[in-house]
Amino acid sequence: MSRGSPRGGRGRGRGGDRPMVPPAEFRSYYGRPIVRPPVWHHDIAAYLFTGGLAAGSALLAAGGDATGRPALRRAGRVTALGALVASTYFLINDLGRPARFHHMLRVAKPTSPMSMGTWILSAFGAAAGVSAVAEAAPLLPGPLRRLLPPLGTAGQYGAAVLAPALATYTAVLLADTATPSWHAAYPELPLIFGGSALASGAGVGLIAAPPSEAGPARRMAVLGAAFELYGAHRVETTKGILSEPYTRGRAGRWLRAGRALTVLGVAGAVLGRRSRVVSALSGASLLAASLATRFGVFDGGVASAADPKYTVIPQRERLARRAEDGQPVRDPRAT
Amino acid sequence: MTGNSLYGPLDPAPDAGWTDAPPRMGFFTDTSVCIGCKACEVACKEWNLVPDDGFDLLGTSYDNTGGLSANSWRHVAFIEQRGAPHGDVLGAAAGPQFLGMPGRDLPGRDPDAPRTDFRWLMMSNVCKHCTHAGCLDVCPTGSLFRTEFGTVVVQEDICNGCGYCIPACPYGVIDQRGDDGRAWKCTLCYDRIGDGLSPACATACPTQSIQYGELSQLRERAADRVAHLHGQGVGEARLYGHDPSDGVGGDGAFFLLLDEPEVYGLPPDPIVPTRDLPAMWRRAGLAGLAMAAAVVVSFLGGRP
Predict the structure, then answer these.
(1) Topology of A42-324 in CATH?
(2) Which residues of A touch B170 (CB under 8 A)?
(3) Separation between Cα atoms, residue A128 and residue A167, nearest integer Å
(4) Residues of A in contact with B167 (CB under 8 A)
(5) ipTM value for the complex
(6) Whole-prediction pTM value?
(7) Cα A89 to chain center, whole Å?
């Protein structure tokens, strides 16, 4: 069974006119996947969220401290540490050999986004940890009470400097794979993840800060949501057949939910600025949106690896384009 | 780093830092003489102590292995085809008829038992030991490494089961072993070839479908074999993974196929994901700058 596979690329369902029309059928080995779907569990999808939340919160804390908004500073610092602890748990729990987590620290390897991410996360963790602990300085005895605040401030700005790297390296992590829809989305994924991180950090600010301090969080929510929505729209519409996994099934539901919650959260943040309750609800909506977006992107990639058509058809199209351009096609009969 | 460290033709062992590396070794798997005996699968399991991977009837011809996995480092694919392109090249006209007693001649030579248009495709698949190996590029622990023979091997005492190599392989070869958590794949019998022996699968292959040797010699031999088959009228014979200018810089284990690669479960145009890594980091950097700018605007902008 190789000609006219029953799982051929017919029946495109939703969203009629896309720029690239795939061939009516493709061939495969009994419809089995060619690239292997990631073995990662939803721990990794959850980490995408908590890592972004840690980054967004660290930026919120730094901005709040720099502009004299103590509620934003406090909420940002504490959330950054909490999200970081959760991230560490998810990352280690997903390992096949959790007891060997420290093997990540054997090397620093620029070709491995996971290795780079380990070092980014470690440095961020140290900085964010110090800055969160410094919030407890008033409760501590004399010397610590004097020593901690400056260290906390240094840690806070250190974490803020690392935060954009922490929020966007995960996009490179997913894109640097043969998973078809992740790899195809590499130009936009960092913008989606960065925007999602900003929106979730803003969500923390909206929940924690009184209306008098929450202005920057509202603006951060609007800008983060704009990045996220723009990036997701590009990924869902410009990748030809590789956009499809993001619009169907579980991934499609997650991403649609994420979009709806983002719009709701931004609307509440802008329109409900006088109400503490509406602001907090908007913040919660933005946090939920960020979570849903990460799960949607994660599941979309997994779905694209599970069906061989997403491997075969784009590669066939690439070969055909190369043949048209007069470059040598690689599996010629006349070798 | 030399110019082609991420993409393009390259001799991988010296690029990985080996000085005085021996010649690059590899496999040439000629599927035109594979008889589907699975001796390679068995020999591999025996030599490498690869565990059992279950007893499943998959309903996919004579293939109950399914594909390469953590517990199958050689996999024999079986494809049953009608309307084969060279069905009548070597024999007489086809058509349904009594096949008679088994003959002693080659199929199609005996006019009483002409060749039909049915054909088997059988192929022993294996890790490609790519020049640019996605698995090796992304491994965050240094567990995967490039040997002096230009092959790619997992160090099982280092692997912590992060699983990143698995989606990074454009061929879907490397896999996580469920009860063990670590990633496993063909080592090209690193423990044998270091002692001058051939890998277990090539040693066991009764038809020399699996040939082991210096990659440069295998490439010459394969080109001769394709020319020979074309001369015999087997026009669909083609090499796969032999070209150093392909998307993975050429495979250390390459193939002679009789149909399109995807029919055997191989990607038609694999490209190592890391080729685009510099562009990815640039995009991430731009997005990071956009984030920083958004925060500055948010905190310095006027009240909305």
Answers:
(1) Formate dehydrogenase/DMSO reductase fold (1.20.1630)
(2) 35, 178
(3) 14
(4) 35-38, 177-179, 182, 301, 305
(5) 0.90
(6) 0.91
(7) 17
